[in-house]
Amino acid sequence: MTPLVLTTFTAMNALGRGTAAVLEALTAARTGLKPCTFEGVRLETHAGEVAGLDDLRVCERLAEFDCRNNRLAELALEQDGFAARVAQARVQYGPRRIAVILGTSTSGILETEHAYQQRDPQTGALPAGYRFATTHNLYASTDFVRRYLGLEGPAAMVSTACSSSAKAFASAWRLIAQGLCDAAVVGGVDSLCRNTLYGFASLDLVGREPCRPCDAQRGGISIGEAAGFALLERPERAGTHSGVALLGYGESSDAYHMSTPHPEGAGAALAMQRALACAALAPAAIDYINMHGTASQVNDSMEDRAITTVFGTHTACSSTKGWTGHALGAAGITEAVISALCIQQGLMPGCLNTRTIDPSFTSKVLLTNQSGDVRRVLSNSFGFGGSNCSLIFGAHP
Amino acid sequence: MIELWIEGVGIYAPGLVGWEQAASVLAGRQAYVPSEPPRLAPALLPADVRRRTTDHIRLAVEVAGEAVRHAQVDAAALWSVFATSESDGAISHYICEEVAKAVPEVSPTRFHNSVTNAPAGYWCMAVRSQAPSTSLSGFDASFSAGLIEAGVQVGAERCSVLLVAHDAPFPEPLHSVRPMSALFGAALVLAPARSARSLARLVVTIEPTPRALSRLPDGGLDGLRTGNPAARILPLLAALARGEAAELFLPYVHSQALRVNVQPFEESKPAQK
Prior knowledge:
The structure holds two protein chains of two kinds. Chain A is α/β, with parallel strands linked by helices. Helices cover 31% and strands 21% of the residues of chain A. In chain A, strands 1, 2, 5, 6, 7, 9, 10, 11, 12, 14, 16 and 17 form a twelve-stranded mixed β-sheet that branches. In chain A, strands 3-4-8 form a three-stranded mixed β-sheet, with no helix packed on it. Chain A starts with a strand and ends with a strand. Chain B has helices at 19-26, 47-50, 55-71, 89-99, 108-112, 118-127, 142-157, 174-177, 219-227, 234-242, and strands spanning 2-13, 16-17, 79-83, 133-137, 161-167, 184-191, 200-206, 246-251, 257-264. In chain B, strands 1, 2, 3, 4, 5, 6, 7, 8 and 9 form a nine-stranded mixed β-sheet that branches. Chain B is globular and about 60 Å long. Chains A and B meet through helix 4, helix 5, helix 6, strand 6 and helix 7 of A and helix 4, helix 5, helix 6, strand 4 and helix 7 of B. Strand 6 (155-158) of chain A pairs antiparallel with strand 4 of chain B, so a sheet runs across the interface.
């Protein structure tokens, strides 16, 4: 496929605001996970919470969109000069020629959770101030972002659980390739809420300690919240850019189970193989794989098998969820940004918090950060319902 | 510009149960009577699986199954796009009620069924498809957002795509803040080229100027169209049912419209058995 450059990108998560903060934490091997005290939730776990969101509100002109999810989105848009760079693209192409394709799993459902705690004792009605369409509704954050940036091109909110904001890249590429727009803001946002904290806990997927991807003693996931965005354009029209391009994408379905991946990773392997074919690259061309690596028993085993099947045992790989936690619908964009930083910095992170790699694993999982020539990175995102997406990023002059 | 060929149709809503019957109503040969449809029990879901699903999931699988049978294509080979304004309202209500308690105990099955792509997951499992699938929302314009996504998939990947639009009313107290008049599901099998199976050619563009949206002449049907986001497909299905070429304007995001030119090849006939 014809590559698209990431003209600029940004991320906000438990590691901090913007790519400098994320990179600093990666190189310092410092986790953003802390004991979870979110809204008095009674779960013994660690979470990747973004500090200070309770005290903020979205901008006044979009006040009806105010909720944790959209506050996170707005803060992220203002990091790394992202919104300003999009404004330049808006002048260059026109607002209708820039798409907004984002991913989320729970959108602004926290507002609904709050509203359910304030139901009328007689009628059970939700409080008068509650706004559904601009918070809970799945499309709300895409609507917020496109209004914030003044964009009027094709738009949608992809919601495929943990692969959402990775699939957004594929969707945007197709829109540009088919001429419906010239550029796209891709990314995603998901914020902490009781739905996912208690929901994942009910499936025994949530661990007590900060998550340890690929660890022999891994005890489950740490949930995180995050927002991230990238501006995608054709290289010849992009002007100065980040030096990183989207080279390929691969998508697949497991067709196996709603909440457990195919044990041999057949669907995951298929997504990686399709991404390689899309990018016209051999497996050996990939320098580093950013795993989905949630630290659940089943995901990490499955992913190890799938990576070995496609790449053999010599391709460096790791999960960075020990830093950020699992940002669910925003995991794809969070790890796309991390992959881009790895290419820019020649960094291959190890599995943070992990002590011993599972001895049954056969792929080359890194325990500590490595430096080197990182020209091509493959990033995996695998979600409930068997939704798989692999993205390939590469250095682009 | 997006160019697509329709090969199969599925539909399920009050008074519009299955394409054969719905086409008769939409073509004006039969009056529209919004009678309660039969209980959803798609054959593609084995009973033990079906028991764990909700109407939101069964609705999507039901219409997807009908469209694929109508098209007589290999279900597993189809890419799929599931367009829904909201994920499962019944489960959203259940989980929000549960987590409002001092000691929440969320059902794991209902939690994994709460993801927007649960219908897609069950569909892919039912037909053993490893093809890519996406689920997305555009609020009231979800059908159009799905049509655009399906269209660029067909164009860019040269594949056939199953497009499903589905939404179901919420229980209270959510129903009052997001009313839907009835449940509605429809599905199209869309192909990249004309074949013997083609029912119609579609050309889709994003309109540069504001347009009056296409409506249905029957008040009851038009009420359904505006009462459920997925039912915004109805003018397209009506043109197909009448076998008449039509230029339609369907609502898209940001108060824009899609211009959809429908060119049926013949008045719609029921699938050959």
